[in-house]
Design brief:
This is YifB family Mg chelatase-like AAA ATPase. By secondary structure, the protein is of the alpha/beta class. It folds into three domains: 177 residues, Ribosomal Protein S5, domain 2 (2-Layer Sandwich); 231 residues, Rossmann fold, CATH 3.40.50.300; 67 residues, Orthogonal Bundle (Helicase, Ruva Protein, domain 3), CATH 1.10.8.60. It is built from 22 helices and 20 strands. It starts with a strand and ends with a helix.
């Protein structure tokens, strides 16, 4: 019996699969067991044709291929090459070693890539350290850019056979192609990070709105959720779209994960230092935003926004079902999609950014245009957003129609974010301030006596919930990091409270 490595995608995660082969004395036959999909079952005819093309004579024995673990459903035609190699080299002294083999076979023996292979390799790199992979030549150059993978490429089944029969040829098939993004990472607290240095959308384009810019800086530095409210044209969407370019650096693992998610969504994803930015329309359905599908669960907008920004423009106009479903991903940083055949959990650690008008006509805060809305209409408009949902938003910014000069650029803001990010990482935080759990929050938040008094008075006067108090502490911790303070002072608590919605 021989075996080699392969892998399959279960939702968004690669699972290692051991492919085993056995020839037994019985009526000639060829079977694949271990919960294979229809695509894998159909591979038998492709494999037979490809093996006959290289002169392999099938023995008068029963060939059994097992995909282990047997309780995990296997998907994809990339198992073809590994199965063919096990059959062709069954009786030869060949050591497959620690190689993972991927590739779909053509009837003529050509080794082809598949739609999900790049996503699978991205995920495999985070599951198996320094994995050796044999892949189709067409994808080898691109796959070799993935950090942590040793990539070898072959074009035909014959080349793959020679690759294992004559190990001296393996070096010729090795592809080394470091992506420029990973060539010179920034090392912070002993870990490599990559960050954006280009600002095609700049905060310098926004005239005035100093309070909104300050809130955007705090939101970026701590990955806090933020809500902009103001009249049409005051700069809500402009601020939200520019926020992406000043977010903290991404770790190499985060780059791989976000690229894998985009690849799963059907994009021809490339590595980039920018965090994701997803902005679904308010008419989008719940499955398109949270993921779903009648048979197999598909990735949605909240999962695609992982490590980045999810932006809801015209916030109250989203359906009630969508708005209330936001509670789980905002609070637990994950979303569970349950279907008859599968249950999938996607991580959702994103910055939630929302923008809304103050009333249906939008001119309640306007000095130039009168508001046409009645109190009943305004109350009904506000009632679209529930208290528990608003309680999950860290920063609330009320924007007016002020105009001024361009006071600060995105580059300046980004430098402040980077400095605050370094302080958080040097404290040993795995998560940034906005995503800390209660235990970590207690560890990193040391309040000065006067700050503690202010927070207690505010909690009593405004009836702040336990979640609201924690949100205030998280925002205050970020403000202190921006100012280089280790202790939370009274001014930090007061500024954090000023951004709470009352």
């Amino acid at each position: 019996m021989k075996r080699l490595g392969c892998a399959t995608l279960d939702a968004n995660t690669a699972h290692v699969v051991e492919v085993e082969s056995a020839f037994v004395r019985a009526l000639p036959g060829f079977s694949i067991v271990g919960l294979p999909s229809q695509a894998i079952q159909e591979s038998k005819d492709r494999i037979k044709s490809a093996l006959l093309g290289v002169g392999f004579a099938f023995p008068a024995q029963k060939i059994t291929i097992n995909l282990s673990p047997s309780d995990l459903r296997k998907e994809g035609s990339h198992f073809d090459l590994g199965v063919a190699l096990l059959i062709a080299l069954q009786k030869e002294r060949v050591d497959f070693g620690a190689f993972f083999v991927f590739g779909e076979l053509g009837l003529d023996g050509a080794v082809k890539s598949t739609a999900t292979l790049f996503s699978l390799l991205l995920s495999l790199a985070s599951v198996v350290e320094n994995a050796k992979v044999l892949v189709p030549l067409s994808i080898a150059s691109r796959a070799s850019q993935i950090p942590g993978l040793h990539v070898y490429g072959v074009e035909t089944l014959h080349e793959a056979l020679v690759f294992f029969q004559d190990p001296s040829t393996q070096e010729n098939a090795l592809h080394v192609n470091t992506h420029p993004l990973f060539g010179a990472p920034v090392w912070i607290a002993g870990a490599p990070y990559v960050h954006n240095t280009h600002y095609p959308l700049d905060f310098a384009d926004i005239k005035g709105q100093e309070r909104a810019k300050r809130a955007a800086l705090i939101a970026a530095a701590g990955m806090h959720n933020i809500l902009f409210e103001g009249s049409p044209g005051c700069g809500k969407s402009m601020s939200a779209k520019r926020l992406r370019y000043i977010l903290p650096p991404m770790s190499v693992a985060e780059v791989l994960e976000t690229t894998a998610h985009r690849s799963l969504d059907g994009e021809d994803a490339e590595f980039e230092p920018l965090r994701p930015f997803r902005s679904p329309h308010h008419t989008s359905s719940r499955p398109s935003i949270f993921g779903g599908g009648s048979g197999q669960a598909k990735i949605g907008e909240v999962a695609l926004a992982h490590h980045g920004i999810l932006f809801f423009d015209e916030f109250p106009h989203f359906t009630k079902q969508v708005l209330e479903s936001l509670r789980e991903p905002l609070e637990d940083a994950k979303v569970l999609i349950s279907r008859v055949n599968t249950k999938v959990t996607y991580p959702t650690k994103f910055v939630f950014v929302a923008a809304q008008n103050p009333c249906p006509c939008g001119h309640r805060f306007s000095l130039a245009k009168p508001c046409r809305c009645s109190e009943v209409e305004i109350a009904r408009y506000k009632a679209r957003l529930s208290g528990p949902l608003l309680d999950r938003i860290d920063l609330y910014v009320q924007m007016d129609e002020e105009r001024g000069s361009a006071s600060v650029s995105s580059e300046t803001l980004h430098q402040s974010v980077l400095e605050a990010f370094i302080r958080q990482k040097e404290r040993g935080q795995q998560e940034l301030n906005g995503k800390l759990n209660d235990q970590e929050l207690t560890r990193v938040c040391t309040l000065a006596p006067e700050a503690k008094v202010v927070l207690e008075k505010a909690a009593s006067r405004y009836g702040l919930s336990h979640r609201a108090i924690n949100k205030t502490l998280k925002v205050a911790r970020t403000i202190a990091d921006l100012e280089g303070s280790g202790e939370l002072m009274e001014a930090h608590i007061l500024e954090a409270l000023s951004f709470r919605q009352r």
